[in-house]
């Protein structure tokens, strides 16, 4: 006799239900996911010039970096520009559907060949300085007064744009900052987290706004702003805390991690039939991507926060990108995104700057409580990646 076949399951829905069940339990018990105990960390790691140089090299220049959303370059002719460790980058989708990452510097004199993001009507990149143009895969297409330059022999790529390894298989655009970085390393950068990113709709993301900040604080202090909700009640009393609970759940995925917190009112789901639970997590899910990028997703918007070392240990450069998914809701989403931006600019970043000043004033150690498990996770990650 044939055995009955179980109906197919939806792994995305199963994952969401599991997260809802965990956060509802945490809210009901008035607790949060915790580590086994508190942690003490040396302040020297935030002040040392030698360590700062090692972090720049080992964690950023030698490591693939997330620079955008796959949805922003989903169709032929689309492009985005980004900056990572001072390197200007343009990512394109060529007419044949292939994705390319290029150093955004004209082969002639180094000026930009693209600005912002969007769709290229002529399907070519054009330098605004002298008018050289390039195909979307980086090959030189034309140069005004061509006779004034050395003829280009077959196979000569000196006048092409510099190509970088790139991948979008995780729903995020990942780029190697050095041309010689193996493609397999870029492809696999988020492999441990890819199953958790599936179903988030990152392949349909559309750019809402991008920002760049120069911050007088170590890049790790800026990253840590998005690693715990312990600060909500004090720092975000009039902003984030009015909308979200501080109870959180936390998980690690190899070199990456995740913590999530819920909208106020989520506790009501404890009495509801799980079959009626929402299809999306009723709150924010924050993924921490090695080495210093944070991906925050809600049911309607997503945000990337990229923190990287500045020129000195006490400085950082921070890039943010907000995206949305439903064109019909774009205008209605702007006020909520603006609230998050205000909290980041007026509350989070000043707190990081104050922290840097405080550590530089003679502190010997800082503390991470048991209720800050993701902070502890990353303090260990960074130390092992640099010293190991």
Description:
The chain is α+β, with helices and mostly antiparallel strands and 388 residues long. It folds into two domains: 11-60 and 200-387, Naphthalene 1,2-dioxygenase Alpha Subunit, Chain A, domain 1 (Alpha-Beta Complex); 64-187, Rieske [2Fe-2S] iron-sulphur domain (Rieske Iron-sulfur Protein), CATH 2.102.10.10. Helices cover 25% and strands 28% of the residues. It is built from eight helices and 20 strands. Strands 13-19-18-17-16-15-14 form a seven-stranded antiparallel beta sheet, with helices on both faces. The radius of gyration is 23 Å and the shape is globular. It starts with 10 loop residues before the first helix and ends with a helix.
Proportion in helices: 25-40%
The largest beta-sheet arranges its strands as 13-19-18-17-16-15-14
In the CATH hierarchy, what is the architecture of the largest domain at level 2?
A: Alpha-Beta Complex
Low-confidence stretches: 1-8
- Strand content range: 25-35%
Rounded Rg: 23 Å
CATH superfamily of the largest domain: Naphthalene 1,2-dioxygenase Alpha Subunit, Chain A, domain 1
- N-to-C CA distance: 58 Å
Highest CATH level, the class of the largest domain? Alpha Beta
Overall body shape? globular
State the order of secondary-structure elements, H for helix, E for strand: HEHEEEEEEEEEEEHHEHHEEEEEEHEH
Total number of beta strands = 20
The profile of the biggest β sheet is: 7 strands, antiparallel
Q: Helical region count?
A: 8
What value does the average pLDDT take?
Answer: 94
* Count of discrete domains: 2
């Amino acid at each position: 006799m044939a055995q009955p076949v179980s109906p197919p399951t939806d792994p995305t829905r199963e994952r969401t239900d599991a997260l809802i069940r965990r956060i509802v339990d945490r809210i009901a018990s008035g607790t949060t996911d915790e580590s086994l105990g508190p942690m003490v960390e040396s302040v020297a790691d935030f002040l040392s010039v030698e360590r700062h140089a090692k972090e720049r090299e080992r964690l950023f220049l030698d490591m693939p970096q997330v620079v955008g959303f796959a949805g922003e370059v989903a169709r032929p002719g689309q492009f985005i520009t980004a900056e990572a460790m001072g390197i200007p980058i343009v990512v394109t989708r060529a007419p044949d559907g292939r994705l390319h990452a290029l150093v955004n510097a004209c082969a002639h004199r180094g000026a930009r060949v693209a600005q912002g993001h969007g769709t290229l009507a002529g399907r070519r990149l054009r330098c605004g300085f002298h008018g050289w143009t390039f195909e979307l895969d980086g090959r030189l297409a034309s140069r005004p007064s061509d006779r004034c330059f050395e003829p280009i022999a077959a196979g000569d790529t000196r006048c092409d744009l510099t190509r970088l390894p790139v991948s979008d298989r995780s729903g995020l655009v990942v780029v190697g900052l050095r041309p010689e970085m193996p493609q397999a390393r870029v492809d696999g950068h988020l492999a441990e987290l890819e199953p958790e990113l599936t179903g988030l709709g990152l392949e349909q993301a559309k750019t809402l706004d991008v920002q760049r900040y120069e911050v007088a604080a170590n890049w790790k202090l800026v990253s840590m702003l998005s690693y715990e909700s312990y600060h909500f009640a004090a720092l975000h009393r009039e902003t984030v805390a009015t909308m979200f609970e501080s109870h959180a759940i936390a998980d690690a995925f190899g070199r990456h991690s995740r913590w999530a917190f819920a909208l106020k009112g989520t506790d009501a789901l404890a009495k509801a039939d799980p079959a009626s639970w929402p299809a999306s997590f009723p709150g924010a899910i924050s993924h921490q991507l090695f080495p210093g990028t944070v991906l925050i997703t809600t049911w309607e918007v997503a945000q990337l926060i990229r923190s990287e070392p500045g020129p000195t240990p006490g400085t950082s450069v921070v890039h943010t990108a907000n995206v949305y998914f439903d064109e019909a809701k774009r205008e209605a989403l702007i006020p909520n995104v603006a609230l998050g931006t205000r909290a980041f600019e007026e509350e989070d970043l000043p707190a990081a700057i104050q922290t840097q000043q405080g550590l530089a004033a003679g502190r010997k150690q800082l503390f991470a409580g048991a209720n800050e498990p993701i902070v502890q996770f990353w303090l260990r990650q960074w130390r092992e990646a640099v010293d190991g």
